[in-house]
Amino acid sequence: MANAKPPTQNQAGQTHSKLIRLIAIIFLALIVLVGLTILIIWLTIKPKKLVYSIDDASIHNYNLSNTNNLNATYNFILRAYNPNKKVSVYYDKVDIDVLYDDETVSRGTIDPFHQPKRNATRFKLNLASHDVSLTNWIAHDLKAERSSGQVEMVVKLKARIRFKVGAWKSRHYHMKVTCAPIMVHFSSSSKGFQRTTCDVDI
Question: In this structure, are residues 178 and 156 in contact, taking their beta carbons and an 8 Å threshold?
Fold first, then answer.
Protein backbone atom coordinates (compact mmCIF):
# COMPACT_ATOMS: atom_id res chain seq x y z
CA MET A 1 0.00 0.00 0.00
CA ALA A 2 1.51 3.34 -1.04
CA ASN A 3 2.04 5.94 1.67
CA ALA A 4 0.45 9.42 1.13
CA LYS A 5 3.05 12.07 0.60
CA PRO A 6 2.83 15.17 2.81
CA PRO A 7 2.34 18.49 0.93
CA THR A 8 5.57 20.05 -0.14
CA GLN A 9 6.62 23.49 1.09
CA ASN A 10 5.87 24.92 -2.37
CA GLN A 11 2.30 23.52 -2.36
CA ALA A 12 1.64 24.88 1.14
CA GLY A 13 2.86 28.30 0.04
CA GLN A 14 0.56 28.27 -3.00
CA THR A 15 -2.45 27.36 -0.82
CA HIS A 16 -1.64 30.18 1.60
CA SER A 17 -1.25 32.65 -1.27
CA LYS A 18 -4.63 31.63 -2.75
CA LEU A 19 -6.30 32.08 0.65
CA ILE A 20 -4.87 35.59 1.04
CA ARG A 21 -5.96 36.45 -2.50
CA LEU A 22 -9.50 35.19 -1.81
CA ILE A 23 -9.76 37.24 1.42
CA ALA A 24 -8.52 40.34 -0.42
CA ILE A 25 -11.11 39.86 -3.20
CA ILE A 26 -13.94 39.43 -0.68
CA PHE A 27 -12.79 42.51 1.26
CA LEU A 28 -12.59 44.59 -1.92
CA ALA A 29 -16.04 43.40 -3.01
CA LEU A 30 -17.48 44.47 0.36
CA ILE A 31 -15.92 47.93 0.05
CA VAL A 32 -17.35 48.34 -3.47
CA LEU A 33 -20.77 47.11 -2.31
CA VAL A 34 -20.86 49.53 0.64
CA GLY A 35 -19.69 52.39 -1.59
CA LEU A 36 -22.38 51.67 -4.18
CA THR A 37 -25.05 51.45 -1.47
CA ILE A 38 -24.02 54.84 -0.07
CA LEU A 39 -23.93 56.35 -3.56
CA ILE A 40 -27.40 55.02 -4.41
CA ILE A 41 -28.82 56.37 -1.13
CA TRP A 42 -27.16 59.75 -1.73
CA LEU A 43 -28.40 60.03 -5.33
CA THR A 44 -31.91 58.92 -4.35
CA ILE A 45 -32.21 61.50 -1.59
CA LYS A 46 -30.47 64.33 -3.50
CA PRO A 47 -29.80 66.60 -0.48
CA LYS A 48 -30.45 70.27 -1.01
CA LYS A 49 -27.89 72.92 -0.14
CA LEU A 50 -28.00 74.35 3.38
CA VAL A 51 -29.17 77.97 3.58
CA TYR A 52 -27.56 80.62 5.77
CA SER A 53 -28.32 84.29 6.36
CA ILE A 54 -27.58 87.13 8.77
CA ASP A 55 -30.96 88.42 9.95
CA ASP A 56 -29.70 91.26 12.16
CA ALA A 57 -26.40 92.88 13.10
CA SER A 58 -25.34 95.71 15.37
CA ILE A 59 -22.26 97.21 17.03
CA HIS A 60 -22.16 98.27 20.67
CA ASN A 61 -19.56 99.79 23.02
CA TYR A 62 -17.57 101.05 20.06
CA ASN A 63 -14.26 102.74 20.78
CA LEU A 64 -11.33 103.39 18.44
CA SER A 65 -8.37 104.87 20.28
CA ASN A 66 -5.84 107.40 19.00
CA THR A 67 -3.40 104.50 18.60
CA ASN A 68 -5.90 102.67 16.36
CA ASN A 69 -6.86 100.00 18.89
CA LEU A 70 -10.43 98.82 18.40
CA ASN A 71 -12.80 97.80 21.19
CA ALA A 72 -16.38 96.85 20.34
CA THR A 73 -19.04 94.20 20.76
CA TYR A 74 -20.99 92.73 17.85
CA ASN A 75 -24.43 91.18 17.94
CA PHE A 76 -25.37 89.00 14.98
CA ILE A 77 -28.48 86.91 14.41
CA LEU A 78 -27.36 83.97 12.28
CA ARG A 79 -30.04 81.80 10.66
CA ALA A 80 -29.19 78.26 9.54
CA TYR A 81 -31.85 76.43 7.52
CA ASN A 82 -31.84 72.74 6.56
CA PRO A 83 -34.40 72.39 3.72
CA ASN A 84 -34.04 68.61 3.39
CA LYS A 85 -36.94 66.25 4.12
CA LYS A 86 -34.82 63.15 4.80
CA VAL A 87 -31.41 64.50 5.83
CA SER A 88 -30.41 65.90 9.21
CA VAL A 89 -27.02 67.52 9.91
CA TYR A 90 -24.48 67.12 12.69
CA TYR A 91 -22.29 70.16 13.29
CA ASP A 92 -19.24 68.87 15.14
CA LYS A 93 -17.18 72.07 15.02
CA VAL A 94 -18.04 75.65 13.99
CA ASP A 95 -15.55 78.54 13.94
CA ILE A 96 -16.56 82.15 13.23
CA ASP A 97 -14.50 85.10 11.98
CA VAL A 98 -15.69 88.71 11.73
CA LEU A 99 -13.77 90.84 9.24
CA TYR A 100 -13.54 94.50 8.33
CA ASP A 101 -11.58 95.43 5.19
CA ASP A 102 -10.21 91.85 5.06
CA GLU A 103 -8.84 92.25 8.59
CA THR A 104 -10.11 89.84 11.26
CA VAL A 105 -11.45 91.89 14.18
CA SER A 106 -13.17 89.13 16.18
CA ARG A 107 -13.34 85.34 16.48
CA GLY A 108 -15.79 82.95 18.09
CA THR A 109 -17.30 79.47 18.03
CA ILE A 110 -20.70 77.77 18.09
CA ASP A 111 -21.15 74.71 20.29
CA PRO A 112 -21.66 71.40 18.44
CA PHE A 113 -25.31 70.71 17.63
CA HIS A 114 -27.63 68.50 15.59
CA GLN A 115 -30.00 70.12 13.13
CA PRO A 116 -33.16 68.11 12.32
CA LYS A 117 -34.82 67.86 8.91
CA ARG A 118 -36.68 70.90 7.59
CA ASN A 119 -35.40 72.98 10.50
CA ALA A 120 -34.45 76.65 10.86
CA THR A 121 -32.11 77.42 13.78
CA ARG A 122 -31.22 80.96 14.86
CA PHE A 123 -28.09 81.80 16.80
CA LYS A 124 -27.45 84.98 18.76
CA LEU A 125 -23.75 85.59 18.23
CA ASN A 126 -22.19 87.90 20.80
CA LEU A 127 -18.63 88.61 19.68
CA ALA A 128 -16.10 91.25 20.64
CA SER A 129 -12.93 93.11 19.69
CA HIS A 130 -10.49 93.61 22.56
CA ASP A 131 -7.70 96.08 21.79
CA VAL A 132 -7.44 94.88 18.18
CA SER A 133 -4.65 96.83 16.49
CA LEU A 134 -5.65 98.27 13.11
CA THR A 135 -3.46 99.68 10.38
CA ASN A 136 -3.72 103.42 9.72
CA TRP A 137 -5.65 103.05 6.49
CA ILE A 138 -8.15 100.53 7.96
CA ALA A 139 -8.69 102.81 10.98
CA HIS A 140 -9.23 105.75 8.62
CA ASP A 141 -11.87 103.81 6.63
CA LEU A 142 -13.61 102.70 9.82
CA LYS A 143 -13.83 106.26 11.14
CA ALA A 144 -15.27 107.44 7.82
CA GLU A 145 -17.95 104.71 7.82
CA ARG A 146 -18.70 105.29 11.50
CA SER A 147 -19.94 108.77 10.68
CA SER A 148 -22.60 107.26 8.38
CA GLY A 149 -24.07 105.15 11.20
CA GLN A 150 -23.14 101.75 9.78
CA VAL A 151 -20.09 99.79 8.57
CA GLU A 152 -19.65 97.06 6.00
CA MET A 153 -18.42 93.79 7.54
CA VAL A 154 -18.03 90.12 6.62
CA VAL A 155 -18.85 87.03 8.70
CA LYS A 156 -17.17 83.74 7.78
CA LEU A 157 -17.90 80.29 9.18
CA LYS A 158 -15.86 77.12 8.91
CA ALA A 159 -17.56 73.93 10.05
CA ARG A 160 -17.04 70.17 10.16
CA ILE A 161 -20.38 68.54 9.44
CA ARG A 162 -21.91 65.10 8.89
CA PHE A 163 -25.16 64.19 7.19
CA LYS A 164 -27.54 61.60 8.65
CA VAL A 165 -30.09 59.58 6.68
CA GLY A 166 -31.97 57.05 8.78
CA ALA A 167 -29.30 55.20 10.79
CA TRP A 168 -26.53 56.02 8.30
CA LYS A 169 -24.10 58.88 8.94
CA SER A 170 -21.77 60.29 6.32
CA ARG A 171 -18.10 61.06 6.68
CA HIS A 172 -17.05 64.53 7.75
CA TYR A 173 -17.39 67.37 5.26
CA HIS A 174 -15.80 70.81 5.50
CA MET A 175 -18.32 73.61 5.04
CA LYS A 176 -17.43 77.25 4.38
CA VAL A 177 -20.01 80.01 4.75
CA THR A 178 -19.38 83.62 3.70
CA CYS A 179 -21.88 86.33 4.60
CA ALA A 180 -21.09 89.57 2.77
CA PRO A 181 -21.55 92.44 2.62
CA ILE A 182 -23.22 92.94 5.99
CA MET A 183 -24.21 96.52 6.68
CA VAL A 184 -23.83 96.55 10.47
CA HIS A 185 -25.53 99.46 12.21
CA PHE A 186 -24.36 101.10 15.42
CA SER A 187 -26.55 100.84 18.48
CA SER A 188 -27.24 104.59 18.33
CA SER A 189 -28.24 104.49 14.66
CA SER A 190 -31.87 104.62 13.58
CA LYS A 191 -31.15 102.76 10.33
CA GLY A 192 -32.87 99.43 9.83
CA PHE A 193 -31.13 96.19 8.88
CA GLN A 194 -31.43 94.36 5.59
CA ARG A 195 -31.03 90.58 5.70
CA THR A 196 -27.80 89.31 4.15
CA THR A 197 -27.84 86.00 2.30
CA CYS A 198 -24.69 83.92 2.70
CA ASP A 199 -22.73 81.81 0.22
CA VAL A 200 -22.39 78.15 1.30
CA ASP A 201 -19.67 75.85 -0.03
CA ILE A 202 -19.34 72.18 0.97
Answer: yes
